[in-house]
Design a protein that fits this description.
AldOxase/xan_DH_MoCoBD2, 7-stranded mixed beta sheet, Aldehyde Oxidoreductase, domain 3, Aldehyde Oxidoreductase, domain 4, Ald_Oxase/Xan_DH_a/b_sf, 24% helix, 5-stranded mixed beta sheet, alpha+beta, 26 strands, molybdenum, 3 domains, EC 1.17.1.4, 715 residues, binds dioxothiomolybdenum(VI) ion
């Protein structure tokens, strides 16, 4: 497998091992719940057992009298939170925001309605079981399919048109189908957790699981109406997140409220069950796609409608229909995006966010069209290849998707594929091949990095970034080592504290482009500072320790701010992926086995080959989970998740995952940033679910349009 990867790597870069790998596997990496703070107390949330209604009475006497209990915080006694407001960037919902522990209204099952604080976790957990609540029970709605008639356009009219909206309908070849992506949950291995400690009436420190310490600081500052500078947010290690830690959630607000009330630091760790209700999910989404094409496979029109679920108190939106606007060259496009408010916790971005949902529908429909046209699915994609951005007409900053098609096709053995479904059988299994691709914007934000050369010749980089697992630290160390001409083990990358120089939240596959640019320019600035120090006699290759010693300096530092880059007005910037899957299908039992995967990324220059490979493999596995097993199920009679645990919510395990070839076009983007690197996290998943479903159809002739492809749907 390694050989496959390295074949597409520059020969000089076998890649650095993950710089924080040893810390993580030995337990030395400290996660937010692991900090010991003097006087620490423990909080356990009590969640509502109804799905909509009003709290009539809440009896906390027994809980308060239980051993070790310091307080039971409810809407009746909680300190008021002055700044409840919609999440940043989100349109307000009439019933929002959710006034955590400041309201008697219940808007979803499991909504925190009390926080028990005790001197041990066990005491808090026991006392939480003693809180008695009486409700006025309202009529809840939790099913999207049953409430499609309540759809509304969350932003503007929610409709996008290019050319003739219904052009696809008059095409000689057409496909129109509906697709369902159910609720999926991020469920990172590390549970969401926070330690909240008030240092003064208006001064706060939190150790928090978050993808962005600066954004968390801003949100808490607004909520509690204290200056952001008075808040320190620490999040040095994050054990996975996939989008679930992109914003501040109710449990974080509850812990800060609780710490204020008991005047002691409070630690709050969600249970695995809470992870299903309290930290977002990939929203259940209904889609309808219409495609029209000429006999030679030129798309004449695309129509893509999507309706996603949201909560009653916030309107969460994502780019579900965006792939249909930009993935293929097509003159006539119609897209429509709606939301339905349900009694659930607010969804959030989950790896690949809306594009992953949208690509399942579009790439499945395109596969259906390929059979109607009797044209190979890769050939069909090439016939509709967009050479410039179909929406803006702008040139791409870089696009090598056609090379990605070739690379993946040769690795999966695409030439073995038969166009006729059900025509290949081996050892009792039908064999099939499928393809699915995706795109995601290649973004870049401003970031600031402080670079300090120490007396011993080691370099320390500091920025308030986050590394939730993609290998950011490793990539940053490699950028700096290359730029400074020093070994990687001489570079230290310090992140995860809001007191460090500003960095954006880790999200949208943008960190390497954003923070990497700042690292790159900080190193150049630092080299220049050294050159100035030694005057004209400088050479390219400096012995930094020697120079510092000669000049009697303990260290030399720069702080460099990089902006979001230029060119976005002239170019369209995207990363692309294509996934190839070979499956074995048993039509008697409905079992699908993934036999082989080749996932290809066009994400610019690959900076850190090993962690890039892990990114692509992880994304492919996430996509296989989405395709075959992941589904959070609500019993709509009660509005409650019935599989809120890892026994019943299935994710792929080793036995489900075959050889995965992670392949890279590995050509630098000349525009987006000085490294030529584009994002990778999202595209590693986008398109995979369609590739699996398309392979199942090719193997068995069974077209499944509702995820996941569980045996009952395949048999
Ligand atoms: Mo990502 S879904 O922006 O963490």
């Amino acid at each position: 497998m390694e050989k496959d990867i390295n074949a597409n790597m520059p020969s000089s870069s076998d890649g650095l091992n993950r710089v924080d790998g040893r810390l993580k596997v030995t337990g030395a990496a400290k996660y937010s719940a692991e900090y010991s703070v003097e006087g620490l107390t423990y909080g356990v949330l009590v969640g509502s057992t109804i799905t909509k209604g009003t709290i009539k009475a809440i009896d906390t006497k027994a809980a308060e009298a239980a051993p070790g209990v310091l307080a039971v915080v409810t809407h009746l006694n909680a300190p008021k939170v002055p700044g409840f407001q919609p999440a940043p960037g989100k349109p307000a919902s009439p019933k929002g925001p959710l006034k955590v522990l400041n309201t008697d209204k219940v808007l979803y099952n499991g909504q925190p309605i009390a926080l028990v604080i005790a001197d041990t976790f066990e005491c808090a957990l026991f006392a939480a079981s003693l809180v008695k609540v009486r409700y006025d029970v309202g009529k809840h709605v939790t099913s999207l399919p049953d409430n499609m008639n309540k759809g509304f356009a969350p932003r503007g009219e929610g409709v996008y048109k290019r050319g003739t909206a219904d052009a696809w309908q008059s095409a000689p070849f057409k496909v129109e189908q509906e697709y369902i992506v159910p609720t999926d949950t991020h469920n990172p291995m590390e549970l969401h957790s926070i330690i909240a400690k008030w240092d003064a009436d208006d001064k706060l420190t939190v150790w928090d699981k978050t993808q962005g310490v600066m954004d968390t600081r801003e949100e808490i500052a607004k909520l509690f109406k204290i200056p952001a500078e008075n808040i320190q947010v620490n999040s040095k290690f994050v054990g996975g997140a996939f989008g679930s830690a992109l914003r501040v959630w109710p449990h974080e607000i509850a812990a800060v409220i609780g710490a204020k009330m008991v005047k002691k630091p409070v630690k709050l760790v969600l249970s695995r069950a809470d992870m299903f209700t309290s930290v977002g999910h990939r929203p259940y989404t209904w889609q309808k796609v219409g495609l029209g094409a000429t006999a030679d496979g030129k798309l004449t029109g695309i129509s893509h409608e999507a309706t996603g679920q949201t909560s009653e108190y916030e309107n969460f939106t994502e780019g579900t229909v965006r792939v249909s606007q930009g993935l293929y060259a097509c003159p006539n496009i119609y897209t429509k995006y709606n939301l339905v408010s349900l009694n659930i916790g607010t969804p959030t971005w989950m790896r690949g966010p809306g594009e992953a949902t949208g690509a399942f529908a579009l790439e499945s429909a395109l596969d259906e069209l390929s059979y109607a046209l009797k044209i190979d699915p890769i050939e069909l994609r090439l016939r509709n290849y967009a050479e410039t951005d179909p929406e803006s007409g702008k040139p791409y900053s870089s696009k090598f998707l056609n090379e990605a098609y070739q690379l993946g096709a040769s690795h999966i053995g695409w030439s073995e594929r038969k166009q006729q479904p059900g025509s290949v059988k081996k050892d009792g299994w039908f064999v099939g091949y499928g393809v699915g691709g995706g795109m995601f914007g290649a973004y870049r934000d401003g970031a600031t990095v402080k670079a300090t050369m120490m007396a011993d010749g080691s370099l320390v980089l500091q920025t308030a970034a986050s590394d939730i697992g993609p290998g950011t630290g490793t990539a940053m160390v490699m950028i700096a080592a290359e730029q400074m001409g020093i070994p990687a083990d001489k570079v230290r990358f310090e992140i995860g504290e809001s007191s460090l120089p500003q960095a954006p939240t880790q999200g949208g596959s943008a960190t390497t482009a954003s923070v990497g640019s700042a690292v790159h320019y900080a190193c150049i600035d630092l080299k220049e500072k050294f050159q100035k120090l030694i005057g004209n006699g400088g050479t390219d290759k400096l012995d930094y320790a020697q120079v510092l010693k000669q000049h009697n300096l303990p260290s030399l530092e720069v702080t460099t701010k990089a902006d979001g880059g230029t060119g976005r007005d002239k170019y369209a910037m995207n990363s692309w992926s294509v996934h190839f899957v070979k499956v074995l299908v048993n039509t008697a039992t409905g079992v699908v086995k993934i036999d082989k995967v080749a996932s290809v990324a066009d994400s610019g220059r690959i900076i850190s080959p090993k962690t890039a490979r892990s990114q692509v493999v992880g994304g492919a596995i996430g996509g296989i989970g989405m395709a075959l097993m992941e589904e959070a199920v609500i019993d709509h009679r009660y509005g409650r998740y019935v599989n809120n645990n890892f026994a019943d919510y299935h994710v792929p395990v080793n036995a489900d995952i075959p050889q995965i070839d992670a392949l890279f076009v590995n050509k630098p983007d000349p525009i987006i940033n000085p490294m030529g690197a584009k994002g990778m996290a999202e595209i590693a998943l986008i398109g995979m679910a369609a590739a699996v479903a398309n392979a199942v159809y090719n193997a068995s002739g069974k077209r499944v349009r509702e995820l996941p492809l569980t045996p009952d749907k395949v048999m």
